Amino acid sequence: MPDYRPIVSDFLLASVPALALLAAPAAGSEAGSAPADYDSARAAFAAEMVSRHGFDPDGLTAVLGQARYRQAIVDAMERPYESMPWHRYRKIFLTPERIAGGRAYWRANADILDRAQTVYGVSPETVVAIVGVETSYGQRVGDHRVLDALTTLGFGYPKRAGFFRGELESFLLLQREEGLDPALAKGSYAGALGKPQFIPSSYRRFAVDFDGDGRRDLWGSDADIIGSVANYLRAHGWRAGEPVALAATLKGRIVDGTLGGVPVAEKAPVAPNTTAGQLRLAGVEWQESVQAPLGGNAPATLIRLDGENEEYWVGLGNFYAITRYNHSNLYAMAVYQLSQEIQARHSEGV
């Protein structure tokens, strides 16, 4: 992977006419125009960053002046994969190529995955599946300049502008801490970075230097990538040795989104505030995990997925931890099912 980390002083760009750059029109908008207040909002943001974080005003203005409004990024935000029905979403990720790629990634990084499991308690197949779902093990890390994505969404997408301005702030702080070049780094249309697609605030909080070279590289270091994904999951509630989800059947009927008084989650994640015992009383049945049978007080959530045939699952604490990576039950189920396919291939040695 290319190295996006030239020396930090490149960020200052003091020789560029900063005010002229920031005043320049948002070119390259791809059949869309930036909102009328786009440039004024960008200038106000720059002033806040100087005041709060001590950035050089000319250098920061120059960098933000390189950002371009991209209508295609706004359009992509309006049609996320997670809006698909489950049976279509599943087919994107549960492919022979992605399963074989996961087996190869595990084989190439077995020692690192074992060490991450020892340190963080997260199963290797889960870490591998997340990298597989996110970027096909690094084959598709994103074609959008992160600077363009975060400025477009931070100043031109009112629905979530506050969130993305916060991510732009984190991105600029990250470049100062890690030596990223903000004008070169590429990622997703939402500004996610590297093979595991960490948003900038998550990169700053949860990325780890797992190879001990003094930097956290989520593009080129599989040790840092694996350690960071495992650290993220542990920080969001992953419990070592516990199951993720169990396929279920129902005795009763769902009425008004509940089964016997138990709420049923669909695409949106719900924290596992119901117990396994309550699910059984409501008429939910499942085959117990041999490795970790559920006690009656185990936190659990009943999940319905709109497959070609309806699917019901008991989502457990580790399933909910995966949804903290991407707030979607579809995402977490794709990760879980891909992890099981990869683990089976790994166990078979094929």
Notes on the protein architecture:
This protein has 15 helices and nine strands. Helix content is about 50%, strand content about 10%. The protein is α+β, with helices and mostly antiparallel strands. The strands form two sheets. Strands 3, 4, 5, 6, 7, 8 and 9 form a seven-stranded mixed β-sheet that branches. Helix 8 crosses helix 12. The radius of gyration is 22 Å and the shape is globular. The longest helix has 20 residues. A hairpin with a 2-residue loop joins strand 4 and strand 5.
**Count the helices. How many?**
15
> What would you call the structural class?
alpha+beta
What's the order of the H and E elements? HHHHHHHHEHHEHHEEEEHEEEHH
Strand content: 5-15%
Rg computed from alpha carbons, rounded to a whole number of angstroms: 22 Å
* Shape, principal axes of CA atoms: globular
The helix content is 40-55%
SS elements, strand count? 9
Mean pLDDT: 89
* Biggest beta sheet summary: 7 strands, mixed
Low-confidence stretches at least 5 residues in length (pLDDT < 50)? Answer: 1-29
Distance between the termini: 27 Å
What's the layout of helices and strands?
Blueprint: H1 18-23, H2 38-53, H3 57-66, H4 71-77, H5 86-93, H6 96-108, H7 110-120, H8 124-135, E1 144-145, H9 146-156, H10 161-178, E2 186-187, H11 200-206, H12 222-235, E3 245-250, E4 258-259, E5 262-265, E6 274-275, H13 276-282, E7 284-286, E8 299-306, E9 310-315, H14 317-323, H15 329-348
Parallel strand pairs: 5-8
Antiparallel strand pairs: 1-2, 3-7, 3-9, 4-5, 6-8, 8-9
Helix pairs in contact: 2-3, 5-15, 6-8, 6-15, 7-12, 8-12, 8-15, 9-10, 10-11, 14-15
